[in-house]
Amino acid sequence: MLYPSRLTQLTKDHTDVVAAILCGILLLLGWLTLHLGWVGLALLLLPAAYVIGGYESAREGLTTLFQEKELDVDLLMIVAALGAAGLGLWRREYFFIVDGATLILIFAVSGALEGYAMRRTERSIRSLMSLTADTARVQRHGQEQMIAVSALQVGDRVIVKPGELIPTDGVIQEGYSTLNQAPITGESMPVERTIGDPVFAGTLNGNGALNLIVHQPPESSLIQRVIRLVEQAQTETPPSQQFIERFERSYAKIIVIAGILLATLPPFLLGWSWETTIYRALIFLVVASPCALMAAIMPTLLSGIANGAKQGILFKDGAQLEMIGRVRAIAFDKTGTLTIGKPEVYKVIAAAGYAEADVLQVAAALESCSEHPLGDVIVQAAEGLHWSTATDVQAHPGQGIVGTYQGQTVTVGNSNFVSQSVTNMPETLLEAMQFLEQDGKTVVWVAQETQVVGLIAVADRLRPQVAEMIARLRRLGIEQIVMITGDNDRTAQSIAKTIGLDQVYADLLPEDKLHVIKRLQQQYQHVAMIGDGINDAPALAQASVGVAMGIAGSDVALETADIVLMSDRLEKLEQAITLSRRSQRVVKQNIVFAIGFIVLLLLANFAGNITLPLGVIGHEGSTVLVTLSGLRLLKG
């Protein structure tokens, strides 16, 4: 049988399949020789079938017995098979030995089938490994050369030709192309990338040649982090499976005790013969074993993890796949999560006598000398316009910047700073500023000499369809959806009103975010936190489920979170919750089916309507069916 403790072994090779085939051949030959009356040869072939087909289960069962002082179902199966063989030798009815060998064979075939099913799940997840290139083409010392990806260093220039895999994370220095990022982010459409854009290892380059600069070690690339998280997901056992494993150990002891009682009491209490008693006790050991129950959870959860990986949702372990479907409240960070995280010019308003282009030209002339993030945004917005860099530039931190442009003094900054340099602030622009600031925009004033040229509103753009995503989360039954942010309350409230959040917690430090999550947990128990920055890490760790943005997320956020949205698409959160709830439905269906089949087989055994081979077929067949049921999550 396939249990979590044997997952690694079964996925390494196909010895389970070979053992099952050899066991089947030996069983068939033993059965034929018995029919032909060649008992001596049959007594050589059938024990060989026992050894080859049952070796692994016997080894697992004895290891558990002697090292952990526990019984498991592997040992129960072997005991039942050996009991059938012993009964056959005692009564010289050698076809009982065939029954025991049939038990071993079906047990081995079942394990091989489950092993195949689990290897399929693992292949689906580990297909990520094939996305990593072994070599990279670099420009060193004026020459192109191929080197191992592991030998790349920060600062290396990597050349990627059309149709090649991107070998490592980097930033484009030269070139333009479209990239297929589906294996990494789950995006179905190719995306355009050009100078200054980041690219990720494992994505497929389109028709353009690219020159990249390596900005982090290859082992820190996004795909390598994904692979490490996948490996972690497969080694950690979710709480439901831990409960089932603990239950199995206690259950096995109960079955052994009940088996001993059934093998000794019926002749005295029910008048059964000893042969019937022992035979029924052996069937009881087989059909009462919780193999199907043990297979009810892990195949389903691993299939769900594989399904999520294909959609760009990375679950770090099965526990988080279980938990995300139970959340009743969700807290979102703002910058980089609900918003893109990159401010842009929202609106330009020119004063009387000036054009919008004049406002941008004058502002960009100064801001090109500034290190302020908003300065970069304004300079980018002025691309394509004709302007020259200002001179005698002097920054006033927290207020603005002053310089000389085309022989005139220019001032760019907040309203208080600019008002000190001009004769008057136009009333229409003051009203516009008030409206824009109430809407959460940052307003930059631009003045030339003593006249206001205009103002520029800068804002961090909301991610597309955020409001629709929030509405869909409510339809899924999420009771409370809030924002926790370090940004000012005015901006946060404006965004919350736009997208329909229940509550806003603003002006928060990282420890404040953690305390908000704790308060939400007191009220709603299961709370998810979605964030992307280092300041979100404490809250991500405290939440029942921490969800990080895979592209925009900091390394600390990615390491702390339980789930990663690889494409930074918040709508994937809804898919994660839906997948979790679907997996839980399948798990519950599997458990009900497994328990029901065990009860049915037990009743048939006590009614005397079932033989050992039929009991084995029913028991092992239900296990295979439960495993295959779990694999339904691989689709869709």
TrEMBL record:
<dbReference type="GO" id="GO:0046872">
    <property type="term" value="F:metal ion binding"/>
</dbReference>
<dbReference type="InterPro" id="IPR036412">
    <property type="entry name" value="HAD-like_sf"/>
</dbReference>
<feature type="transmembrane region" description="Helical">
    <location>
        <begin position="251"/>
        <end position="272"/>
    </location>
</feature>
<dbReference type="InterPro" id="IPR023298">
    <property type="entry name" value="ATPase_P-typ_TM_dom_sf"/>
</dbReference>
<dbReference type="InterPro" id="IPR023214">
    <property type="entry name" value="HAD_sf"/>
</dbReference>
<keyword id="KW-1133">Transmembrane helix</keyword>
<keyword id="KW-0067">ATP-binding</keyword>
<dbReference type="InterPro" id="IPR008250">
    <property type="entry name" value="ATPase_P-typ_transduc_dom_A_sf"/>
</dbReference>
<feature type="transmembrane region" description="Helical">
    <location>
        <begin position="591"/>
        <end position="610"/>
    </location>
</feature>
<keyword id="KW-1278">Translocase</keyword>
<keyword id="KW-0479">Metal-binding</keyword>
<dbReference type="GO" id="GO:0016887">
    <property type="term" value="F:ATP hydrolysis activity"/>
</dbReference>
<dbReference type="InterPro" id="IPR051949">
    <property type="entry name" value="Cation_Transport_ATPase"/>
</dbReference>
<dbReference type="InterPro" id="IPR001757">
    <property type="entry name" value="P_typ_ATPase"/>
</dbReference>
<protein>
    <submittedName>
        <fullName>Heavy metal translocating P-type ATPase</fullName>
    </submittedName>
</protein>
<keyword id="KW-0547">Nucleotide-binding</keyword>
<feature type="transmembrane region" description="Helical">
    <location>
        <begin position="278"/>
        <end position="302"/>
    </location>
</feature>
<dbReference type="Pfam" id="PF00702">
    <property type="entry name" value="Hydrolase"/>
</dbReference>
<dbReference type="InterPro" id="IPR023299">
    <property type="entry name" value="ATPase_P-typ_cyto_dom_N"/>
</dbReference>
<feature type="domain" description="P-type ATPase A">
    <location>
        <begin position="131"/>
        <end position="231"/>
    </location>
</feature>
<feature type="transmembrane region" description="Helical">
    <location>
        <begin position="96"/>
        <end position="117"/>
    </location>
</feature>
<dbReference type="InterPro" id="IPR059000">
    <property type="entry name" value="ATPase_P-type_domA"/>
</dbReference>
<keyword id="KW-1003">Cell membrane</keyword>
<dbReference type="InterPro" id="IPR018303">
    <property type="entry name" value="ATPase_P-typ_P_site"/>
</dbReference>
<dbReference type="InterPro" id="IPR027256">
    <property type="entry name" value="P-typ_ATPase_IB"/>
</dbReference>
<keyword id="KW-0406">Ion transport</keyword>
<keyword id="KW-0813">Transport</keyword>
<feature type="transmembrane region" description="Helical">
    <location>
        <begin position="17"/>
        <end position="50"/>
    </location>
</feature>
<comment type="similarity">
    <text>Belongs to the cation transport ATPase (P-type) (TC 3.A.3) family. Type IB subfamily.</text>
</comment>
<dbReference type="GO" id="GO:0005886">
    <property type="term" value="C:plasma membrane"/>
</dbReference>
<keyword id="KW-0812">Transmembrane</keyword>
<dbReference type="GO" id="GO:0019829">
    <property type="term" value="F:ATPase-coupled monoatomic cation transmembrane transporter activity"/>
</dbReference>
<dbReference type="InterPro" id="IPR044492">
    <property type="entry name" value="P_typ_ATPase_HD_dom"/>
</dbReference>
<dbReference type="GO" id="GO:0005524">
    <property type="term" value="F:ATP binding"/>
</dbReference>
<dbReference type="Pfam" id="PF00122">
    <property type="entry name" value="E1-E2_ATPase"/>
</dbReference>
<keyword id="KW-0460">Magnesium</keyword>
<keyword id="KW-0472">Membrane</keyword>
